Please model this.
Amino acid sequence: MKIATWNVNSLNARWPRVEEFLTTRDVDVVLLQETKQRDDKFPSDALQELGYSSAHFGFNQWNGVAILSRVGLSEVVRGFGDREDEEARCIAATCDGVRVMSCYVPNGRAVDNPHYAYKLEWLETLRLRVAAHPKDVPLVVGGDFNVAPEDIDCYDPSAFVGATHVTEPERTALRAVTDEGLTDIFRHLYPDDVQYTWWDYRNGSFRRGWGLRIDLLLCSPHVTNRATAAWVDRDARKGEKPSDHAPVIVEFSL
DNA sequence: ATGTCCCAACTTTTGGGA
Model:
């Protein structure tokens, strides 16, 4: 089984690349973030024609998350349901016995911005949802976490002093999620590999190798113990109209 | 530090977000 996560930065703008990905990468489940769509604009029919059932959670031009699956999709839960002004940042479903969650963690914007506190709160809510998950059901929590877990996941930690994505509170909040029994599968399989998943559109960051590894697949032991490989699909960051994020894929034997 | 991209809108340029 192959599960991918990909922040597409607008599904509408990215449709040709998403279609290319689905027809060439042979993935069973895809977790999307930043679809930037309302549910009624989501291309579920076009996805079905490509062989994927889908579920989407989106209110407007911001955020938006989805799950695509060609191995079944049931028990869909949209969002956390924890606040009146909830944003579309989380959706869960069961695909072939694996519970998957597609997460778009708030960016945080700046350490002194209210959005940063919101980011930490959001991660704590995610931790509670993971803690409440039955331990006998395989779980993969994937998405754009907007946190580089360690310095190895940042092209230049000195350039990020005082910036979001690398601060200790963010890393601690992310670690609190994984401490509930999940494993950052890429780092687990390749402890020393330097790989990034996001490069700013500006400054020629991709060409210069200025990236961060902020898109993660957090796996429960059932999946972690059966994982055979994980990789970043850097080719998806190249070519015509790419997202600023590359997909991350995990392969495991059910 | 900021060389881009994407979206909405009292749209053909601007502002917000990343």
In short: The CA atoms of residues 36 and 62 of chain A lie 5 Å apart.
